[in-house]
């Protein structure tokens, strides 16, 4: 028993307290042992055990904090003018069918919002006609449950929503309200957030360069900040202050061109974002605060549930991935569960997260657990076959055949046999053979059909020598033609190719070849080559 999982087995009431004390002591011993261990698994389990589990109330509180942070981020995105511009580009892409719907809108949230809106609109009718919301005995359908929206209907609804934004894009406030109602996809949200952060970095960079230039020109930092912040878009900023004389006049004389160039860059950024620099600074600050809050909440949520991932990872051991790899994949599923958890549905987070963690682990096992990858659907079918085989073995007491499994699963026998054949583990050619320390490997005992054996290599060498001796009886021209025609020089060549080199016709080459073969067919040559043919 480890520090992660202290689970008392069902025992008699008289032994329950003793069992609990024993398990607690064992867990403490494991933690103490882990403190002096260098095993990464033990160290990880020790760290995970230090984070307490969340109560139901704490889960709801964290989920609400995440929801509030996400809503604040969405407010910032909706308030940025270039979000409207980007959505108009997406609208054009949807009209031209060059943009995928899922890259613009979170389809699950959009469909759920539509169903909830429809249910709310018909709430009075549902109350008045409660009897008609029961199961229809004729067709077995449940009345009152909104049908699944089709992809075409969803595309039309999204385009209509974007067209409403297009109609009011001249009014930033009205457009922001409509954008806020759209559940943007994670990719599009990330793109808009990245654009805001990049622009903010550009502004901060200009601020820093401008401060250095101004202070190098003789103006104190405090004086500069008081005159600069909130007045970034002011026309003739430096000229207005230089007219008063003093340090500003000296700055205009020394660094006027540099200051004007930096303010021109600020003007360009202002035109890009469509907002005054001061308002954009506030939006960027709100975005940063909301993202920090979201990150802290996610981290608290994740740390409290790491032991759940470790417990589920144990159940997937010995299936092709080491423990820490399973934990890593499970943590990815845990983060997905944190993103999608809806506290209003009433179930505990661990119940919901278990499905995402298991799904992430099983997908990783299907993709990475085998040397030769099997498709996910084949892995699922193989799991059913193995489970069925165990059940049949326990029921009958004998090993089931492929036909028995196929009959129980209503699956073709050929498919069962093929999946079981695919399930065989790959064996490494570098696997050691025997218990001796002679370094023998499995690959040393397997024949390489692509490599010529020692006997064949010697025979081939002797044949080449004899052929060379036989060809010496021919004229150089005849020997060259025979070598090239029969590939003795490496590749076989046509009569036309050889005739082109000798500047004669292909018929002449054929005649020379026939004459040479006739000479090679003599008895003394045949006896020499007969040995190789019989061998």
Automatic annotation (TrEMBL):
The keyword Transcription applies. Gene3D superfamilies: RNA Polymerase Primary Sigma Factor (1.10.601.10), Winged helix-like DNA-binding domain superfamily/Winged helix DNA-binding domain (1.10.10.10). GO terms for biological process: DNA-templated transcription initiation. SUPFAM superfamilies: Sigma2 domain of RNA polymerase sigma factors, Sigma3 and sigma4 domains of RNA polymerase sigma factors. GO terms for molecular function: DNA binding; sigma factor activity. Residues 325-338, 494-520 form the RNA polymerase sigma-70 domain. CDD domains: Sigma70_r4. Keywords: DNA-binding, Sigma factor, Transcription, Transcription regulation. InterPro entries: RNA_pol_sigma-70_dom (IPR014284), RNA_pol_sigma70 (IPR000943), RNA_pol_sigma70_r1_2 (IPR009042), RNA_pol_sigma70_r2 (IPR007627), RNA_pol_sigma70_r3 (IPR007624), RNA_pol_sigma70_r4 (IPR007630), RNA_pol_sigma_70_non-ess (IPR007631), RNA_pol_sigma_r2 (IPR013325). This is RNA polymerase sigma factor. It comes from Skermanella aerolata. The gene is rpoD_2.
């Amino acid at each position: 028993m480890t520090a992660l999982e202290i689970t008392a087995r069902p025992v008699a009431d008289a032994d329950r307290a003793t069992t609990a004390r024993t398990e607690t002591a064992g867990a403490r011993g494991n933690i103490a042992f882990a403190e002096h261990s260098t095993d990464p698994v033990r160290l990880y389990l020790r760290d995970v055990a230090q984070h307490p589990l969340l109560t139901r109330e704490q889960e709801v509180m964290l989920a609400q904090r995440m929801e509030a942070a996400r809503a604040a981020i969405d407010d910032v995105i909706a308030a940025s003018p270039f979000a409207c511009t980007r959505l108009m580009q997406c609208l054009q892409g949807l009209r031209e069918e060059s943009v995928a719907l899922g890259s613009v809108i979170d389809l699950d949230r959009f469909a759920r919002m539509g169903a909830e809106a429809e249910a709310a609109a018909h709430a009075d009718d549902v109350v008045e006609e409660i009897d008609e919301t029961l199961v229809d005995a004729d067709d077995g359908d449940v009345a009152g449950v909104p049908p699944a929206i089709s992809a075409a209907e969803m595309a039309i609804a999204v385009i209509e929503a974007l067209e409403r934004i297009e109609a009011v894009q001249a009014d930033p406030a009205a457009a922001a309200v409509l954008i806020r109602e759209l559940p943007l996809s994670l990719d599009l949200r990330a793109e808009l957030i990245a654009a805001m952060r990049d622009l903010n970095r550009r502004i901060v960079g200009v601020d820093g360069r401008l401060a250095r230039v101004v202070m190098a020109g003789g103006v104190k930092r405090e004086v500069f900040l008081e005159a600069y912040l909130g007045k970034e878009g002011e026309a003739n900023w430096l000229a207005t202050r230089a007219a008063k004389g003093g340090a500003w006049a000296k700055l205009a004389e020394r660094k006027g061109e540099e200051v004007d160039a930096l303010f021109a860059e600020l003007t360009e950024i202002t035109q890009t974002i469509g907002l005054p620099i001061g308002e954009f600074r506030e939006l960027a600050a709100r975005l940063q605060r909301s993202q920090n809050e979201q990150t802290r909440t996610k981290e608290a949520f994740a740390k409290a549930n790491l032991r759940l991932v470790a417990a589920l990872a144990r159940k997937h051991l010995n299936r092709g991935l080491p423990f820490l790899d399973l934990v890593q994949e499970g943590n990815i599923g845990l983060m997905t569960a944190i993103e999608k958890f809806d506290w209003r549905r009433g179930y505990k987070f661990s119940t919901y997260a278990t499905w995402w963690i298991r799904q992430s682990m099983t997908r990783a096992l299907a993709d990475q657990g085998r040397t030769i990858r099997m498709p996910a659907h084949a892995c699922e079918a193989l799991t059913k076959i193995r489970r069925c085989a165990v059940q049949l073995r326990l029921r009958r007491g004998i090993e089931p055949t492929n036909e028995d499994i196929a009959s129980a699963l209503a699956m073709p026998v050929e498919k069962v046999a093929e999946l079981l054949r695919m399930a065989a583990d790959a064996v490494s050619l570098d696997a050691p053979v025997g218990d001796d320390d002679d370094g023998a490997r499995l690959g040393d005992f397997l024949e390489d059909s692509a490599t010529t054996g020692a006997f064949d290599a010697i025979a081939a060498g002797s044949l080449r020598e004899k052929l060379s001796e036989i060809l010496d009886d021919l004229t150089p021209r005849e020997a060259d033609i025979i070598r090239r025609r029969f590939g003795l020089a490496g590749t076989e060549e046509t009569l036309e190719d050889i005739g082109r080199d000798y500047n004669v016709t292909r018929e002449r080459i054929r005649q020379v070849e026939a004459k040479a073969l006739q000479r090679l067919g003599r008895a003394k040559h045949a006896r020499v080559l007969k040995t190789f043919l019989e061998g």
